Amino acid sequence: TGAFYTSLLDRVRALPGVEAAATASGAPMGYYNNGDSLSVDGYQPPPGQPRPSSLYLIISSDYFRTLRIPLVSGRQFTLADDARAADVAIVNQTFADKYWPKQDPIGKRFRSTDLKNEWLEVVGVVQNSKAQGIFSDPEGYFYVPLAQQYKSLRALQLRTAGDPSALAPLVTREIRALDPDLPL
User: Cβ distance 144 to 83 under 8 Å?
Assistant: First the structure.
C-alpha cells in the first residue's frame, strides 16, 4: 500500500550513508518497463508512421535527485501534485524535441490510455538518461507523480555515500520490520 512505501522511504532515508531514496514503477535498465500509445495535443504523425508512443515511469518524490537526472526547464513535482490537482508529467529532452520541436514544451499536453486517458500537462523537462540500455540512443520518456497515478509495483532506488552493498542488509531489515512476510 501507499503507507508501506511512505514508511519504507522514511526509514531508508534515515539509514547512515543514504543520500537520497525514491521508488518508481521500474528501474533504469530493469526488466520491467511501462509503455503506452499516446495522443499528443497538436501533433500529427507523418503519413505511414505509427501513433505516438512512449515509455514512462510512475515516480515518488526525490526520484530525479536520487538518480541525478538534471532538470532542464520547468519544475519538479511538488506535494501539490496530488490526486486533487490537474494531472501533470515531466518529459525527457527526446520526448520534448520529438513532439514539440523548437517550442517550449512547458504547458503542452498529451494523454496516455494506460493512465486514466486524462490530459497530462507538461510541467518540466529533464535531461535524457539511460533507461533501456547503456548503448542505446535515448528514447522519449515521461514521468508522472505517484500521488496522481498510484501503482503498487515499485522498485526502491537509493543514492549512497559509500558502498551500496553494505546497506543491503540494513534495507532488508527495514523492509522486514514493516512486513515480515513480504518476499524479497
Answer: no
